[in-house]
Every structure is written in C-alpha cells, then in structure tokens.
Amino acid sequence: MTDMKQQVRKTLDSVTMPPLIGPLADLPDHVKQVVEAYGRACAREAIVAALRAAPEWQPIETAPENKLVVVGWMDDEGADRQEFDYIEDGLWIHHADLVEHAQMVAPPGSKMPKEQPPYQWWIDLPAFPAARPRGVKDAT
Tens digits of per-residue pLDDT, 86-122? Predict the structure, then answer.
C-alpha cells in the first residue's frame, strides 16, 4: 500500500463522533451506536469525496495540447521543481524558449538546459475563484 493510501486509511479509521448531547444523550445505547456509526460513515464519505475532487499529478505523456498546465519534475539533486508550460505542435513552448534564449546569450562553456524538457508530471491549474463585486471582502 502506498504511503498516501496508508495515510488516508489511517485518517478514515480515526474518524470519531463527539458525544451525543441533549435529547440524543437519552437514547438507548443500541440506538446511540447506530447514530454514531451513521455519523462516522457520513464523515468518511465526505473525506473520500474531498480526496477524489482534489486534482492529481498525471504522467507527462498524458498532458493536453494547447492548454497551460503546471509541470513537475525532480532535478539532479532530487528537489521538486514546478513550472508553467504548454504544448503547441508537440513542443513544450516555455522550455523551448528557455533553450533558445540560453543558446543565444550564454557564454561558451556555460551549463545549458537540455534540449528535451525534464518534465515528469503535469496537473491542471485550478479554476479562479468566483468573481465578487467590488468592495466585497472574504468572510475571514
């Protein structure tokens, strides 16, 4: 099981319900157990739905054409790297511009970017928040 799946399983297993209060506290124990089990099931469903709604990184081979996306890769030192880029006619445009610029201005002997982008994964950009009328602030 992957680390993420283990973490999700641990989170789902740890869902507990607060003690029943008010009129619910006077219910017979077997009814309280059903109410608590239902509450845990609803909480688990909400967690799973949120996880499914979250965007996931996809293999770079599946990236769409003509759409700005976030691309990711591990550099030579093992650090995570991200960039915005898009494919046009089979070419990653931002990376191609970077290579072309380096070829034009870098002094001889400089470390140059590789011709092929190092990208390994991509993810969609999230949608912008809904527009708010001027002067309306967040409720935070």
Answer: 999 999 999 999 999 999 999 999 999 999 999 999 9
What Å distances lie between residue 58 and 55, 71, 74, 88, 91, CA to CA?
Answer: 9, 9, 14, 19, 18
Let me know: does 36 contact 47? Beta carbons within 8 Å: no
What residues does each domain of the chain span?
Answer: 3-53, 58-124
- According to the model, what pLDDT value does residue 103 have? 93
Look at the block and give the residue holding tokens 């688990």.
44
What's the pTM? 0.55
- Contact between 7 and 47 (Cβ < 8 Å): no
Please report which helix (H) or strand (E) contains residue 91, including its range: strand 91-92
Residue carrying structure tokens 């059903």 = 34
